[in-house]
Amino acid sequence: MNKWFRKGNARRYNRVDMPIRSFIVPSSPIRDREIYATGANYLPKVVIDKIKSQRLKVFEAVSKVQEQKELVTEITKQIVLALEIFGQCCEKISSGASPKLDLPLWRQVNIISAGFASIKKLQAASPKTHQYLALLEDKFIKHFYYLIFSIENSTADQFQVKGHLPKGFAIDKLLKSFEDPKYEKIPLVQTILNLGGLMNTYLEVYELINEDNYARQFPEEWAIKPANVSASGIAIHLGKRFELYTKLDVLIYIEGLNKILEFEGSVVDIRDNAAQGTERVAINFEFPDGKDQTLLQQEIQKQEVKECMKFALFS
């Protein structure tokens, strides 16, 4: 049977799949390097593999472009390089290292922060393509400024953020429309679509870093995610990785009570989910507070009742 066992106690706790708002970070952040870091790995293998796959699709698509092929290929390479620089910065700050101390990298950051200069070459010959790439550039550069702000203003004691990252970009609607099957055979559209997907993967990495250093104080805004929950632990898919047995702070927000349940946990199992590009992390609660544990158990029981109500009853 699927049961969680509480250490040192023979009681059993039922597990149930339910959506939760949670905030999960290591209990011991990195404070002895240039930049404060939570200690989580925001570029685990499952994300790196996803990036490699998306990058391959980008260059497969651009290799089939006919019109303005050399220029479009040049621009594509420039954008991919910019994304890789962005990723290198994320990797460094997640380990507590400052990209500013890597002078070649920081020079690249300063160059890229001015935008994708080569897309202007398309403005006269291919105004529509230029427009599409300019929309992609707009989203990337605005996120890049947030990243640069954090790098320039963070210390070993605090990771500085401006707030939530911006949302609702025009490129998002465009990319959604490009998912229509009627565009499958158009190499230029596929190039832009795959570039957008690659960009979003990198931006999601930084968004996780940003949120882990900002969102703790806004529980009502924590993303709702499906999880397998018991009163003694949870299993949840995350876009970041913790080492096995890492001690974690696990906060669960109960909206109906407007209350945060706080648990100390330990990672007991990690499994890659390549299809989702996430890590399935199983966490056992250690010496949970009795009141919070009781409240969580009550929420689980409510969920079990909801599940039962889905089935028709016959007399």
From TrEMBL:
<feature type="domain" description="PilZ">
    <location>
        <begin position="227"/>
        <end position="300"/>
    </location>
</feature>
<dbReference type="GO" id="GO:0035438">
    <property type="term" value="F:cyclic-di-GMP binding"/>
</dbReference>
<dbReference type="InterPro" id="IPR009875">
    <property type="entry name" value="PilZ_domain"/>
</dbReference>
<dbReference type="Pfam" id="PF07238">
    <property type="entry name" value="PilZ"/>
</dbReference>
<protein>
    <submittedName>
        <fullName>PilZ domain-containing protein</fullName>
    </submittedName>
</protein>
